Amino acid sequence: MNSRKLENLAPAGTPEALEKAIAAGADAVYLGFSMFSARAGAGNFDREALEKAIRLAHLHHVRVHVTVNTLIFDRELEELSQVLDLLYSLHADAVLVQDLGVLRLLREAYPDMTVHASTQMSIHNRTGAAFCRETGIRRVVLARECTLKEIRACTGEGVEIEVFSHGAQCVAVSGQCLFSSWIGGRSGNRGRCAQPCRLMYRYRGEKGAFLSPRDVCTRMHVLDFLDAGVSSLKIEGRLKRPEYVAVTAGCYARAIRDAEDGRDSGHAGEDMKELKQIFQRGGFMDGYAFGAEDAGVIDLKHVSHRGVEIGHVTNVSRDGAFARIRLTDDLHDGDQLSFSDEREGEMIYTGADVPGGQEARVRLRPGLKMDRNGTVRRLVDASQLARANRLPMPGIPVRAHLNARAGEKLSLEMTDGISTGMAQGDVAEAARTRAMDAEGAYRAVSRLGDTPFTLSFQDFTLTGGDSFVPVSVLNSLRRACALDLEEKRIRAFEPERGERKPVPAAELPEGPGPSLLVFRDPRTLAEKREGFLYAWRPGDYREARLEDRIREIPEGSWFCLPVMCEEDTLQMLRSFVRRHRDTFGGVVIGSVGQLGIDWTVPFGCGSGVPVMNRQAAAFLFERGAAFVTASTEMSMEDMLRMRGSCGRILLPAYGRAHLMLLHTCPARVRLGLKEGHSECRMCDTHARESLQACPFLEDMHGARYPLVREALPEGCMIHLLSPEPINRLKAAGNVSVLVELTDETDDILPAASGDRKAWIRSVE
C-alpha cells in the first residue's frame, strides 16, 4: 500500500455539478464566484449559492477551492476586497490566483487564507515552485506542458503540486494567450475566452485545426503521479454538464483508490470506455507529462466530441428512410448517433434497446447526411446519462445512542466519529403497560432519509428499557440531533480564520523610468538610441548558439529570458548570464517563477509577467524589479491611470503581440510526427531570418499570423504573433514604453526624454 494520498479534484460549474462531484467521490471541488473567475461562461455561484455550496461540501468533508484567477484592473480592487471578505467569512478552503496583486492582498490582509497558484501563473519548473513556496503559496497548479521529470522535481520543493489529469487542454501555455482578446476583445486572462483555438486554419495550404488539442486522459497513469509526489489530480470541465462530472470524478476516484492500495480492481477498461463516451476530441492523449508531442497532441480534423464507435452501416433502404447497423456495442433508446463527421449526420435513436453483436434497424431522420457503409459513432449514451443522474449522494454513517431511562431527561447522541450531535427532551416517564425496546427505538431514530446520515442497527444503542416515549417525541429528537450534528460536522471541517487585516497600500516608486527596446537581430539597430534600454530576445536559447552570438550584442544590452523552459535550461541561462554579466545590463524576466533566482545583475519584468493593477506592481518592486510591464490587454487610458507618476511601469507601445506560446509545432503536426520534438532540427536546416519568410497560420478571413520559433535545449516553443504590429507610440506620449522589433528597423522610434536618460545611467 502506498502511504501517499492523492486528492481527486473535480470541477463544479453549477450547483448540480457540485452534487454530482460529491456523489461520485471527489475529495475537493473547484468553482468560480460570479466575479473574477477564469471561466466566466460557467454557471458560477452568487453569494447565496456559494454559501450553500460550501456548507454542502463541508458537510460531506469535501474541500472547496474558489477561482479568483483573472487579471484585475485597479478600478476593481475594491470589489475584489469584498469578494475576498466573502470567501474568508464563508471558510472557502483555498483561493486560486493568477494576478500578483491579488496574491499581495491575500498575503497581507488575509494571512489565514490558503492560496493556490493557478495554472494561469505559468509555473513550470522547480525554481517557480520554490518561489511560490517562499511567497506563502501552499499549492501550485503546474503548467500543462510539464514533463513527469519536471513535476517530480517540483514536488520536492515543499509545496503541494496539482496537475491536470483529464479534460480539455489549452494549446497555448496558460496565462500566455492573448488570441481571444486580439480577435474579439474577449480576454482569456479575464475569463472570457472565445476559444479561437477550436477554429480551422490553413498552414502551407493545408486546412486543419492546427490549434485544437485532443483531451488529455491520464486514467492509466495515476500511480505514476502518486509516485512522483503529486498532491492533487485536477479534472477540467467547469463548462461541462453535471453528468460529465459524475462520470469523470467516479472513474478517477476508483483509479486513485487502486493506486493508493497498490492494486488493480479491474475497472480500468470499463473506466476508459466510460470516459471516451462522455467526452473526447479525436481520441485521448496521455498529456505532455507522458510524452505526447505535436501530432499526438493536435487532431487536425476534429474539434468537438467524437463519442465511441458502436457499429457499421450494412444497408440503407431505397427510400433512405431506414438503415441497418451491425452493432459492436449496445444501442439504447435515446442515444445520439453520428453517421459522418458533419453535424448533418447526427440523429437521436428512438426504439427498443438492441444488444451488441446484433443488427439494428434504425429509422433515419429526413435529410440525414450519411457515409454509406461507414462507421456509426455514439455521441451520447442515454443509459450512461441515466446512471449518472441516478447517482445518489453518499450517506454519512453515524453511530447513535438513546438514553431513555425513566426519571432522567430523554437524550440522543449521534456521532460520525469526529463530531457529535446532541438533543435533549423532557424527563422520560416509566412505562405503564408496554416499555420501549431497542428495535422500536431504532426504527424511529434511523428514519434519516431527510438528512445526510445513515444509521445501521449495529451502530445503535439504547439505555433504559423501562420507559415509554411517543414516536412523535423521538422524531423531534432525531431531527434536532441530526441538525446539531450537521452544524458541528461542518464547523469541524472548516479552515480556521483569524482577524482580517487592513488592505496594504500600493507604494510605487515615483519619478522617471526607462523605455525598453527589445530586438531579435542586432542588424535591425541602425545605431544605439539614447534614452532606451536595449534588450536582446534570442530566437535560439541553446548554449552554443548563445555563445556564438554574444559578440554581436551591443554592450549593456539586457537579456530577455524565455517565458517557459525546463529547470536545466533555466540553470544554464543563469550560468550564461553570470559569465557575461559585464556585457549584460540586466535580465528581463519572462515569467513569474524566474523571480526565484538571484541573477547577479538587475532584473525587470517583461510582458510575460503582466501587471494590470498597482498592487501587482508593488509586489514586483518590493522584490527588486527595476521596471515592470503593463498588461498588453489594457487600454492606453487604463495604463496611464495605473501608472500615475511611476515611470518604472512600461507601457507596451509598439510591436507584434505574442498571441500564443505553443509547445506544439504546426510543421511537425502537418507531417504527422508524434515523437522526437527535442531532437528536431528542421528549422536549423531551413532557418528564416526574415519575418516575411516565416511560416504562418491563416484564418478563414485571410488574416496571417506569423509563427516564430524559439529554440530551447528541450525543443522549440512557437510564438504565434499578431498579423500587424500594435502602434500606440503617439497615444503613449512622453512616457516609458516597451517597443519590440521583429524585423523592423529602429527608425520608428521617437526620441527619448532627458529624464529617461538619467534613469538609465543610474541603472547602468
Account of the 3D structure:
The protein has 764 residues and is α/β, with parallel strands linked by helices. The chain folds into five domains: 7-169 and 215-276, TIM Barrel (Alpha-Beta Barrel); 172-212 and 659-724, no CATH class; 308-390, Beta Barrel (Elongation Factor Tu (Ef-tu), domain 3); 396-493; 505-656 and 725-758, Alpha-Beta Barrel (TIM Barrel). The protein is built from 21 helices and 38 strands. The strands form eight sheets. Strands 26, 27, 28, 29, 30, 31, 32, 37 and 38 form a nine-stranded mixed β-sheet that branches. Strands 1-2-3-4-5-6-7-11 form an eight-stranded parallel barrel, surrounded by six helices. Strands 15-14-17-12-13-16 form a six-stranded antiparallel β-sheet. A hairpin with a 6-residue loop joins strand 35 (704-710) and strand 36. Helix 5 runs parallel beside helix 6 (148-155). Mean pLDDT is 92; it is low at 758-762.
